[in-house]
User: Fold this.
Amino acid sequence: YMTGAAGASAMSGGTRASAAGALAAPGFAFTEGRIVAQRGARHVREFDLAGRSRPAVSVGSSEHFALPRLHNGLRDVGVWLGWFGPLSRPLQALSAAGALGARVPGYERALDALAARFAKGSSGGPDTAARARTRSSIIAVASDRAGAPLAAVRLEGVNPYDFTAEMLAWGAMRALDGGLQGTGALGPVDGFGLDELEAAMAGAGMTRV
Assistant:
């Protein structure tokens, strides 16, 4: 989630363009022990954030590949993006409509043209002042097969763009220094180890609460 004064200026043009493209493109999820095709924003889930129920849309992400490698018994992975607030349900409806429209010749070209008009791509992103007005909240929940929560972790910290920049730079420097714990496509935990990753996240401004 992006929290604080998360108005229109809080999201970069590149993020808006990427979100529009993700709704139009085929997506994926880890469900019943395997990767399956699933459109973006197919599901909406509510999470408790500071005593309020906040919606988030389902998205395809690297966690669908990385987390099952850490726990052989994991059957489902849900990744959710809570940046859109009250627009989450409309995005879900647009995603469903897009899945139907994709069967119509010329639909994708029309959607690309519409996205190019309203989400023009890189705009330089929010400036320092805009980023200072927003923060990040990350929630992870482990549940049993019936959906009953077993454990939860919550992290709070700096603006999402600042956090992403710090973590990308840290990961690149650790890889350059020989700090990776394996080869090939690695997730953050199997790549660096949980303790080192948690310390790096704290250094980047994201800590457990």
In short: The mean pLDDT is 86. The longest helix spans residues 160-176.
